[in-house]
Amino acid sequence: MTNLQQRWEELADIKDELATRDWFMGTSGNLAIKVSESPLQFLVTASGKDKRKRTSEDFLLVDASGQAVEETHLKPSAETLLHVEIYNKTKAGCSLHVHTVENNVVSELYGDQGEITFKGQEIIKAFDKWEEDATLTIPIIYNHAHIPTLAREFSEHVQEDTGVVLIRNHGITVWGRTPFEAKKLLEAAEFLFRYQLRLMEFTK
Ligand SMILES: CSCCC(=O)C(=O)COP(=O)(O)O
Ligand SMILES: [Zn+2]
C-alpha cells in the first residue's frame, strides 16, 4: 500500500467512526489528513457528501493552498482553507471538523465571552494538561460566511501542533499530531460540552 492509500484508509476509518456517533448530520463536517510535508499535500473530504457513506470519492488530495493536486470533478470541502491554516502553521497530521448540537449550543451560550474555560475535570488530561488545577480554554470565533475571513480569524488560534477552536453556531475544529490525537481531543471536547450543558440543567 502506498503512503497515500494508507492515509486514505486511516481517514476513512476515522470518518466511519465519527459517523457512528452521528456527527455528520445534514452533510456537515469535514476531515483532513496530511500526506506529505514537502511539498505540503493533504487529503480532505469532498464537499457536500454524505460523510456516513464510504466511497472511492470521499477524499481528494490538495496542496498548501487547498487546490486539488490532480484534475478531478470533486470539490474540496468548502472549509478547506481552515485545514490549510493548520497544516501550513503547525506540524499537525490530522484535522477534524464536526457540527454537533452540543458544540453549537455551548458556542452560543459562551460566544459573547469569546471563549469557554473548563476546570476541575479529569478529562482535561486528554489535552496534555496534567496539573491538579489545570484549566482548558477553548476560543469561540464568529462564524463568518466568507471563508477566507473565517480562516483568517481561525488562524489567530492556530499556534501549536494540537488545538481546538469553536466556531459560533457552526461547529468545532480540532487538530493533532496524529489522527489518534485529533480524535482524542474531539471526543474529550464533546464530553466537556455535554457535561457543561448537563450541569447547567441542575444549576438553574
Ligand atoms: C450543510 S453543512 C454547511 C457546510 C459546513 O459547515 C460543513 O461543515 C460541510 O461543508 P463541506 O463543504 O465540507 O461538505
Ligand atoms: Zn462546518
TrEMBL record:
Cofactor(s) demanded: Zn(2+)
Reactions catalysed: 5-(methylsulfanyl)-D-ribulose 1-phosphate = 5-methylsulfanyl-2,3-dioxopentyl phosphate + H2O
Pfam hit, one: Aldolase_II
Cofactor comment: Binds 1 zinc ion per subunit.
Name this polypeptide is given: Methylthioribulose-1-phosphate dehydratase
Chain residues that bind Zn(2+): 97, 99
SMART domains, alphabetized: Aldolase_II
EC number: 4.2.1.109
GN (gene name): mtnB
Domain Class II aldolase/adducin N-terminal: 9-197
Primary role: Catalyzes the dehydration of methylthioribulose-1-phosphate (MTRu-1-P) into 2,3-diketo-5-methylthiopentyl-1-phosphate (DK-MTP-1-P).
One MF term in the entry's GO annotations: methylthioribulose 1-phosphate dehydratase activity
